[in-house]
């Protein structure tokens, strides 16, 4: 813990309103000017990240409308289909923290571009798996190709988040909110595009087109993305120090559940909608409700997170509304609603709005928590926080389709959706109860319990409330 103690001077001041403020009484005029407008370096970085988030999410979601049906033709069960979706994220869960450790050493730009190349190539290869024999051969190669694609995706997304945290230190949540617009747009555009290309050219065409898009964006980013070599060093961040911080655990749980809530729909919703005799294109358009609403409202949540600093309140409200959305999507027998398409669509739209409110503030909360407890504000810390966020998000995205496929196969979609509603509500209780404990113990970013002598020595209201970081030894 010596490393944490060495950086006590970098700990931000905790204001009486519970917000994190710079250590100076008045903001620097240059700092204010930087916050109001982006530099050319930041603009180029932002454009490069937007393209990457768009293509990455399209790669994941483009198969949702047609792949379950094609896999069934290859004698693959619902649970196996769910695992094909899930194995991608299981590999990302293990690979993301590793990339988070290595990025400061091998460089952010190289990691980012290499990951994009691997992911794009595997996308194209996946389009030719329909030539394999039905059963075990098809299933095994689906697992292998998706796993290799996941290694590349984990590298590119983890590097992207580290780049954002390093390039936009004063606007992390706002920029992440806008990036989630493109992530949601990719999630929304992927299914209808996949359905349309599948109807137009069969199984291969969606993968060839999407793989070509990823590689094209890679080539553009080689010239568009500013060099990151100056950020590289031999210093690696410490996951041990990060996990010694209590707030990291409930926030990680929230990431896991939020990601599972989004990815649950990939292998299950298209099969559930078949009862309404919808075409693949229309099913893809129904998926648009989640991604579209998520994309539209994410910048709003990012703005609120950066400007108002009500991070935990946003998380609690977002996951509470997401639980209600899942009850509507079933619709759950608890609500005693008719099984109507418009009710399901209303639940999907509410999920897209609410889950963004829960997820967007978490990355900023993780960074702020790490810095508040004295971890250095550098690329090493940013990389491991990015690796943690992407790893937990990937774990949730693994559990969502797999658990969704198993529960739907055994109990049906309405019951499975009810289970996921309970999972979202559990986040409300975990974050809420932790917040009470955090406030009572004085370990959170709130006014801590201090001795009367400290209060007497406090010169004015703008003085720091904490003069040394908590010790966890």
Can you lay out the helices and strands and say which pair or pack?
Blueprint: H1 2-5, E1 13-14, E2 20-21, H2 29-36, H3 40-61, H4 67-73, H5 78-106, H6 108-126, H7 136-167, H8 172-201, H9 204-224, H10 239-243, H11 248-263, H12 265-273, H13 280-308, H14 311-329, H15 341-372, H16 379-411, H17 413-441, H18 452-457
Antiparallel strand pairs: 1-2
Helix pairs in contact: 3-7, 3-8, 3-9, 5-7, 5-16, 6-7, 6-9, 7-16, 8-9, 8-13, 8-15, 11-15, 11-16, 11-17, 12-16, 13-15, 14-15, 14-17, 15-16, 16-17
Overview of the molecule:
This protein has 473 residues and is an all-alpha fold. It is built from 18 helices and 2 strands. The chain has helices at residues 2-5, 29-36, 40-61, 67-73, 78-106, 108-126, 136-167, 172-201, 204-224, 239-243, 248-263, 265-273, 280-308, 311-329, 341-372, 379-411, 413-441, 452-457, and strands spanning 13-14, 20-21. It has a two-stranded antiparallel sheet with strand order 1-2. The termini are close together.
CA-based gyration radius? 23 Å
Q: Total number of helical segments?
A: 18
Low-confidence stretches: 4-36, 445-473
Helix/sheet category: mainly alpha
Q: What would the average pLDDT be, to the nearest integer?
A: 80
Distance between the termini: 7 Å
Helix percentage range: over 70%
In percent, how much strand structure appears in the residues? Answer: under 5%
Quick one: how many beta strands?
2
- Characterize the main sheet: 2 strands, antiparallel
**What strand line-up does the widest sheet have?**
1-2
């Amino acid at each position: 813990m010596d490393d944490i103690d060495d950086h006590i001077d970098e700990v931000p001041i905790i204001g009486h309103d519970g917000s994190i403020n710079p250590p100076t009484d008045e903001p620097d005029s240059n700092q204010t000017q930087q916050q109001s407008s982006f530099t050319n370096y930041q603009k180029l970085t932002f454009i490069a990240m937007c393209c990457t988030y768009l293509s990455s999410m399209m790669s994941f979601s483009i198969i949702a409308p047609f792949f379950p049906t094609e896999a069934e033709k290859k004698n693959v069960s619902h649970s196996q289909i769910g695992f094909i979706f899930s194995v991608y994220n299981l590999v990302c869960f293990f690979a993301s923290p590793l990339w988070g450790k290595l990025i400061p050493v091998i460089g952010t730009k190289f990691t980012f571009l290499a990951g994009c190349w691997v992911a794009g190539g595997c996308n194209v290869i996946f389009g030719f798996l329909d030539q394999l024999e039905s059963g075990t051969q098809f299933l095994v190669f689906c697992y292998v190709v998706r796993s290799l694609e996941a290694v590349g995706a984990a590298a590119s997304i983890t590097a992207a988040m580290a780049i954002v945290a390093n390039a936009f230190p004063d606007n992390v949540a706002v920029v992440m909110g806008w990036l989630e617009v493109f992530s949601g747009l990719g999630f929304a555009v992927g299914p209808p595009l996949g359905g349309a290309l599948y109807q137009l050219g069969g199984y291969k065409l969606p993968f060839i087109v999407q793989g070509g898009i990823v590689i094209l964006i890679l080539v553009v980013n080689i010239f568009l993305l500013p060099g990151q070599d100056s950020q590289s060093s031999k210093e690696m961040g410490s996951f041990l120090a990060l996990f010694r911080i209590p707030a990291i655990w409930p926030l990680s749980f929230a990431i896991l559940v939020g990601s599972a809530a989004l990815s649950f729909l990939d292998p299950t919703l298209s099969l559930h909608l078949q009862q309404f005799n919808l075409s693949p294109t229309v099913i893809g358009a129904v998926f648009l409700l989640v991604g579209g609403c998520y994309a539209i409202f994410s910048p709003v949540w990012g703005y609120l997170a950066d400007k108002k600093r009500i991070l935990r309140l946003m998380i609690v409200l977002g996951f509470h509304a997401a639980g209600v959305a899942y009850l509507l999507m079933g619709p759950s027998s608890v609500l005693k609603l008719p099984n109507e398409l418009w009710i399901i669509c209303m639940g999907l739209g509410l999920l897209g709005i609410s889950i963004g409110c829960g997820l967007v503030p978490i990355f900023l909360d993780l960074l702020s928590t790490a810095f508040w407890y004295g971890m250095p504000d550098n690329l090493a810390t940013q990389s491991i926080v990015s690796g943690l966020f992407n790893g937990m998000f990937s774990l949730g995205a693994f559990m969502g389709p797999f658990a969704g496929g198993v529960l739907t196969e055994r109990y049906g979609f309405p019951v499975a959706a009810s289970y996921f509603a309970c999972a979202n509500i559990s986040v409300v209780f975990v974050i809420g109860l932790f917040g009470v404990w955090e406030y009572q113990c004085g370990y959170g970013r709130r006014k801590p319990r201090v001795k009367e002598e400290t209060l007497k020595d406090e010169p004015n209201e703008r003085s720091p409330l904490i003069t040394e970081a908590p010790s966890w030894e």
